[in-house]
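A.,

Following up on our hallway conversation. Structure tokens first:
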């Protein structure tokens, strides 16, 4: 089922699990994805709370500011987010569907939308992120961005 508006979770990102060795639950995974989205929307202080020490982001795309097969740690990611927020007018991110949470493997996946204004037009891209979670924090993300929205 495809919707025309981003998925909105009923939970608040104010209570995000951290360094909890308990198995990943659907609720905790959903909150981590909410925190990840909030981080991309400029809440940079969340990085230390939701990202594990040694965190790595692996980009599948080669675009401005990343280079081929770029990987970012926590500090590089927050600098990248800050630079993109300044470079792209009205940049926002939103989950496009409820995240999938594999409680047994400690992994998640989420589709997302990015929108900003470019040349007077609204530009919308979509992507998918796959997450590994260790001790209640995101330890790795593999991210793929597309130039069009995922539609059924």
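Then the amino acids I'd put at each of the 152 positions:
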């Amino acid at each position: 089922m495809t919707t025309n508006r981003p998925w909105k979770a009923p939970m608040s990102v104010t209570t995000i699990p951290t360094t909890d060795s308990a198995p990943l639950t659907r609720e905790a995974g959903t909150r981590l994805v909410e925190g990840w989205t909030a981080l991309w929307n400029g809440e940079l202080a969340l990085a230390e709370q939701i990202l594990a020490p040694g965190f790595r982001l692996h980009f599948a795309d080669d675009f401005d500011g990343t280079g081929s097969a770029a990987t970012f740690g926590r500090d590089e990611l927050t600098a990248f987010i800050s630079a993109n927020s300044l470079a792209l007018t009205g940049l926002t991110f939103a989950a496009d569907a409820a995240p999938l949470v594999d409680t047994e493997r400690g992994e998640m996946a989420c589709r997302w939308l990015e929108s900003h204004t470019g040349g007077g037009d609204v530009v919308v891209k979509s992507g998918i992120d796959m997450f590994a979670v260790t001790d209640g924090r995101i330890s790795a993300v593999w991210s793929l961005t597309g130039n069009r929205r995922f539609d059924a």
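Residues 14 and 35 are 8 Å apart (CA to CA). Curious whether your intuition agrees with the design.

B.
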